[in-house]
Design brief:
The complex is a heterotrimer of chains A (343), B (401) and C (448).
Chain A (H helix, E strand, L loop, with lengths): L1 H31 L6 H19 L2 E10 L5 E7 H6 L1 H9 L1 H23 L9 H23 L15 E3 H5 L7 E3 H23 L1 H11 L1 H6 L4 H23 L9 H16 L4 H18 L2 H6 L3 H16 L14
Antiparallel strand pairs in A: 1-2, 3-4
Chain B lengths: L5 H15 L1 H4 L17 H24 L7 H17 L4 H23 L4 H20 L16 E2 L18 E2 L2 E2 L3 E6 L2 E6 H22 L1 H18 L5 H25 L2 E2 L6 H14 L6 H15 L5 H7 L5 H11 L7 H15 L4 H17 L14
Antiparallel strand pairs in B: 1-6, 2-3, 4-5
Chain C lengths: L1 E3 L5 H12 L22 E8 L6 H18 L25 E8 L4 H13 L5 E3 L4 H14 L2 E3 L17 E2 L5 H16 L4 E7 L2 H16 L3 E8 L7 H4 L9 E5 L2 H13 L6 E2 L2 E2 L1 E6 L2 H7 L7 E4 L8 H14 L5 H20 L4 H8 L2 E3 L7 E3 L6 E2 L2 E6 L10 E7 L1 H4 L21
Parallel strand pairs in C: 2-3, 2-4, 4-5, 5-6, 7-8, 7-9, 9-12, 12-13
Antiparallel strand pairs in C: 10-11, 13-17, 14-15, 15-16, 17-18
Helix pairs in contact in C: 2-11, 3-4, 5-6, 8-9, 11-12
The chains are: A mainly alpha (343), B mainly alpha (401), C alpha/beta (448).
């Protein structure tokens, strides 16, 4: 029982990342009809927003300390971050400690801008082009973006630890009456799940309850008619692209403390997020979220010892196996609309 | 000639000349000069050009004609490679049975995957093929290489060991892939002045096979069957309404292109008897998609150009390092030399991915029809220059089919 | 005019090829001028440095490349000479190799067997490289080693830790300076027993491919020999980026030690996840929970950051060693590049020097001469103390380090501290040890 609960938690957690990335991807499919292979790169850039902010906070001046030596035997240069000398050591240390949550504020404008520039500068010219061209150009863009990040930050992963208050784990099992150590779960993973719920809820209510969202939904259903009504739908779609980029970026910012960001993390998620979107059904936002959590949970269960001894290698192929089964039993994924990306 | 119209015949002849003379064409720079870095006429890369050319030609039969975008074609290439190496292990190093089996196995495998995947269309089809390929890759990498049942030898790649049966291996046969005694690695090097040209047996085997399959591709493109496939692409629904069942046609196209991929995989193993699981990964499937689009989807020669383009960058640009740069720009004053090297540095060596990414974007933005369109524009421009003014009709771009 | 037809199994068989070749059109049988593949004829000799420059191991590869460039400088008599001054063999004079200036070409392995073979082939076929050096995974090492055997050039492996490289996949033309999984187990076990006791229960997470399996096998064998119990061994897909679903059940399993048979990005993430789950703060079976990472590297340690504090593992070499060879190398690397070298960098550096030295001693670049000079070669002064290149399997034997994540690092480079230098005698094994069984070295192949 406790093992099952643990894997459900893990699944929700993996699912949160899948759902957030897939949500943005579906938004772009649904609104602009563009296959965006650079979406993983947006996730990665988000994570590197946190890395950058952490680096900014850690900008330091150097004082030579004659009492210590470095590896070559020269006097050691001791670094003190500027924030510590401006705000006092304690306040400074707290700011550095909270750099990941603070990065959310830092990342939102950056990601909106990145999304806006990407859409206006590049994607815009590809609306009428075949999907194949869209794939090629966005894939090229993804490579360029990730190589730029690699150029500045290197290929090695960079730790972006959570604030001390939110690191470590809690024993959830105690509250539910299990033995100690039965259900121990990291705090930041719980935070990540809650964060995903909030963002997903936010996007849905934005689309559901605002006029802007209503117009966008109408545009997704029938772009031409909305355009004929004299509404500048392109402009709104551009904004939606920015929002999709911001969602992917925020997913990346918050993901950093779970697994340290590296320049190819976007590519690692790219194929998976496409599978999630398609399993959910093209053009369906709830489908993408549902498929994200479903695949996350199934993946977690497939990696238990019980599953891998029953069917060797199931943990390697579960996502793809589920995708095949879903697509063969439900022609348009879980909640797909007819006619979207079917030709 | 050979049942082709005049235009296709000349295309085939041009391709034949280019492939047969490739050792000269690809080595334009004297081997001691600084520009020798850009020479691509060494056996391994020439082999790769034609092998990936075959792979892309086959992929284009499916994607270019029917519009079905398979994201899992590398699986067939990988299966082909594995079957070829197994033939080396069990029978002998002769490449003929190996290549034959690789085509057959890849064909059977693509019947299976194609039959299931073709029940869906559009992106659903793409994801189905992707899922099958990724499953094959994951299994080949780990589960199928466990000590009890070692089919693939995992990350190391399947290779021939000294204690393999090789029941047909003659006592005097070469101990490496060969064609009735002619080793695939036999290379004749011709030195002409400062130039050096490599003529490699394996390359010519691949080149001859490529010309044959290229000819087949032309025939398929021009046949009623090819017309039917195009009809699938332009409007499958209307086709279904006329009472035609399109599935046998698409499945046939899928299997043919799967066999092309298997052939490419078998040739890869024949040139270098090792089959690695990475050949089946999604990045490899993505690569052939990129090759085809980059070269020009639906054109005959485009995919070959795209394959050459990508392989050239992978193998040539990744080998340029700062030392090479310094030797090129040694004639500049010191400060300027460093500055130039500093500017170029991010784009070469370990930065070759960046260059490739930028080129993808540039090509697709400025040449919507891929490299083929670039070639046509160039040709038209030259024609306009030479004829002068008389370009009203000629200026229109046509697909090079 | 020359005819290059290269074979897999040595000189004897190449006679067969030549005779088979006689049946061919004369164009392919022009008489062979060169005695071996890529015999250097001009005033220079070309070495091929094949390292990952793209992909997750790019930093590792970059470090190897820097070290190899340094080695070339030292061979050509530039810089401060580095380990040439401490090396016990004095054959190298700082005037290149056998009087020829050393040049090098580089290639990108992408950490894929296929790509690595392609770049090695291009260095051999196009650039005339006489040896291939470097790499950062066992799959690549085995694949390229096979190629070099066929092509008739020398291969020096770089970072490869799987037993198979000098076990069932050993080749006469290949040598490995790096230690292996068996040695990690043999070196770690006594330290683990001393630090954690002999009645521990271990839980293994293992990367699901060849290297992971051999390491798991080695560590399980050596820890069980001293009394540990193995609770469970779980294979994790190489492509995994998140290990939460593998880590979560550990606390419930009754295990009190977690062994992470992961490398690179896998290890950074699995260790980070394990720390997140608070494993190190727990007490199980009345003992403090511990984590072991059998194979460490400096770059992984940097990637794992704070998480490695107190975690034990083993290494081939570390810049904090105090022998003369190490000091000389760290000094010249540090002064040139502003950071201490990693252990894979040191391996690649030492291999270039050893290759050059073997050529000098053999008086030829002929791979067979080099193999003969390296087989059974005993030396000192390149770090790690007295070292032997064993003739039976071309594995290098030297002291192995057991290291621990430093609790109080003073700078970015001393994140690992040396716990023990395990003497060579303790990690030695017979050439026919079951973990290395199968395969044959074959004969050296000079190509041509």
């Amino acid at each position: 029982m406790d093992a099952i609960l643990l894997q459900i938690l893990n699944g929700l957690d993996k699912g949160s990342a899948y759902a957030l990335i897939a949500l943005g991807l579906t938004l772009i499919f649904g609104t602009l009809g563009v296959v965006n292979f650079a979406h993983g790169a947006l996730f990665m850039i988000g994570a590197f927003c946190a890395v950058t902010l952490q680096k900014i906070f850690n900008l330091s001046y150097e004082v030579i300390d004659e009492t210590q030596t470095d590896f070559l035997g020269n006097p050691l240069k001791v670094k003190t971050p500027y924030v510590e000398s401006w705000f006092g050591p304690e306040m400074g240390a707290t700011i550095i400690d909270w750099s990941v949550p603070l990065s959310i504020l830092f990342a939102i404008p950056i990601m909106l801008m990145v999304g806006y520039v990407m859409e206006r500068g590049l994607i815009k010219h590809f609306y009428k082009r075949p999907h194949a061209d869209q794939i090629l150009v966005t894939f090229g863009l993804a490579i360029v973006l990730q190589e730029i990040i690699k150029y500045f930050f290197g290929a090695n992963p960079i730790q972006t630890p959570p604030p001390a208050a939110l690191s470590g784990s809690v024993d959830l099992g105690l509250a539910l009456g299990f033995d100690p150590n039965a259900i121990v779960y990291p705090i930041w993973r719980l935070v990540y799940f809650l964060f995903a719920v909030v963002i997903i809820g936010g996007v849905f209510s934005f689309l559901q309850f605002t006029t802007f969202g209503m117009v966008v939904r109408a545009g997704m259903a029938d772009r031409e008619t909305v355009g004929l009504l004299g509404i500048n739908i392109d402009r709104r779609f551009t904004i939606m692209f920015g929002i999709a980029a911001a969602v992917a970026g925020l997913a990346g910012v918050m993901y950093g403390p779970l697994n340290p960001p590296n320049y190819h993390m976007g590519m690692d998620f790219l194929v998976l997020s496409f599978v999630v979107v398609v399993v959910g059904g093209m053009g369906s936002l709830p489908g993408a979220v549902l498929a994200g959590f479903l695949l996350g949970i199934l993946e977690s269960f497939a990696s238990t010892t019980w599953a891998t001894t029953t069917i060797p290698g199931i943990n390697q192929i579960i996502i793809y196996l589920v995708a095949i089964i879903v697509l063969l039993t439900r022609p348009r994924g879980l909640m797909g609309r007819k006619g979207v990306m079917e030709e | 000639m050979l049942g082709l119209n005049k235009k296709d015949t000349s295309l085939l002849i041009v391709v034949a000349i280019l492939t047969l003379l490739a050792p000269f064409i690809l080595n334009p720079f004297p081997s001691d000069s600084a520009m020798a870095q850009f020479n691509a006429g060494y056996p391994d890369l020439m082999q790769r050009f034609v092998i990936f050319g075959i792979f892309a030609i086959g992929f284009n039969i499916l994607f270019g004609l029917t519009g079905y975008l398979s994201f899992g074609h590398a699986a067939f290439l990988g299966v082909g490679s594995y079957s070829a190496v197994w033939m080396f292990k069990l029978l002998s190093y002769n490449v003929i049975p190996a290549i034959a089996l690789s085509v057959v196995v890849a064909g059977l495998f693509s019947v299976l995957i194609g039959y299931i995947s073709l029940r869906r269309s559009g992106i659903y089809f793409s994801i189905l093929t992707l899922a099958f390929a990724q499953m094959s890759f994951a299994l080949a990498y780990s589960v199928l290489s466990n000590p009890k049942f070692n089919l693939t030898n995992g990350e190391t790649g399947l290779q021939v060991y000294a204690d393999d049966p090789q029941i047909l291996q003659g006592a005097n046969a070469p101990d490496l892939p060969h064609l009735f005694g002619l080793p695939m690695r036999a290379t004749y090097t011709m030195d002409v002045g400062a130039w050096s040209f490599d003529f490699n047996a394996g390359y010519y085997l691949c080149a001859v096979i490529m010309m044959v399959v290229f000819y087949l591709a032309i025939r398929i493109f021009r046949s009623p069957f090819g017309m039917m496939l195009r009809a699938v692409k332009s409007n499958q629904q209307r086709m279904n309404y006329t009472g035609l069942n399109s599935k046998p046609y698409t499945l046939a196209a899928f299997v043919i292109s799967g066999m092309y991929a298997g052939l490419a995989g078998g040739l890869m193993a024949a040139m270098d008897p090792l089959a690695g699981a990475e050949r089946m990964q999604w990045t490899a499937s993505g690569e052939v998609v990129l090759m085809t689009i980059l070269g020009g989807t639906g054109t005959l020669i485009g995919p070959v150009l795209g394959a050459g383009f990508i392989k050239y960058f992978e193998n040539i640009f990744s080998k340029i390092n700062d030392n090479v740069l310094h030797s090129w720009f040694a004639f500049l004053p010191d400060g300027l030399e460093d500055a130039v090297v500093f500017i170029i540095h991010p784009f070469i060596g370990k930065g070759w991915h960046l260059t490739l990414g930028i080129l993808f974007m540039l090509v697709v933005i400025y040449l919507p029809g891929g490299l083929v369109e670039g070639g046509q524009r160039l040709l038209n421009w030259i024609r306009r220059k030479s004829v002068g003014g008389d370009d009203t009709r000629e200026g229109k771009t046509e697909p090079a089919e | 005019m020359s005819n290059k037809s290269v074979t897999r199994r040595g000189v004897l068989k190449s006679g067969a090829v030549t005779s088979a070749g006689l049946a061919l059109p004369t164009i392919f049988t022009a008489s062979s001028a060169a005695a071996y593949t890529n015999e250097p004829t001009g005033g220079s000799v070309t070495l091929g440095f094949n390292v990952p420059q793209t992909g997750p191991y790019a930093e590792e590869g970059n470090d190897e490349l820097l070290a190899q460039q340094l080695a070339v400088e030292h061979l050509n008599g530039e810089g401060d000479g580095g380990c040439l001054n401490t090396f016990t063999s004095k054959a190298l004079k700082g005037n290149g190799i056998l009087g020829k200036k050393v040049e090098f070409v580089t290639g990108d392995t992408q950490t894929k067997s296929d790509a690595a073979r392609a770049s090695a082939k291009s260095m051999i076929e196009k650039d005339g490289a006489i040896m291939i050096n470097g790499g950062s995974s066992s799959g690549v090492a085995v694949a390229v080693q096979g190629l070099c055997q066929e092509a008739g050039v020398i291969f020096m492996a770089g970072l490869t830790h799987a037993n198979d490289t000098t076990g069932k996949d050993k080749k006469a033309n290949g040598f490995r300076h790096f230690f292996n999984a068996y040695m990690s187990g043999a070196a770690l076990a006594p330290v683990l027993a001393k630090e954690m006791g002999t009645d521990r229960r271990a839980y293994h997470l293992t990367a699901d491919y060849n290297w992971g399996w051999t390491q798991e096998e080695s560590i399980v064998a050596s820890t069980e020999a001293m009394g540990w119990e193995t609770v469970n061994t779980v294979k994790t897909p190489l492509a995994s980026t998140d290990f939460s679903s593998y880590i979560a059940p550990v606390l419930n399993s009754g295990a009190d030690v977690l062994v992470l048979n992961h490398y690179g990005g896998n290890m950074v993430n699995s260790l980070t996840n394990a720390i997140q789950f608070g494993l190190l703060d727990k007490v199980v079976n009345g003992k403090d929970f511990k984590i072991v990472v059998p194979l460490y590297s400096e770059l992984m340690a940097a990637g794992a950051g704070e998480n490695i504090k107190g975690v034990l593992g083993s290494m081939n070499w570390n810049w904090q060693l105090q022998d003369e060879g190490t000091k000389a190398f760290v000094k010249s690397f540090g002064e040139k590049y502003g950071k201490p070298p990693s252990n894979s960098a040191q391996t690649c550096y030492a291999q270039v020097l050893l290759y050059a030295d073997a050529c000098e001693r053999a008086g030829t670049f002929n791979p067979c001469g080099v193999v003969e000079a390296l087989e059974g070669f005993e030396f000192d002064g390149l770090g790690n103390g007295p070292t032997l290149y064993r003739a039976d399997d071309h594995q290098c034997f030297k002291d192995v380090l057991v290291v621990r994540g430093n609790m109080n690092p003073t700078n970015a480079y001393d994140t690992l501290e040396i716990v023990e230098i395990t003497p060579r005698a303790q990690v030695e094994y017979a050439p026919d040890h079951p973990m290395f069984a199968g395969g044959e070295l074959g004969k050296c192949n000079p190509g041509a």
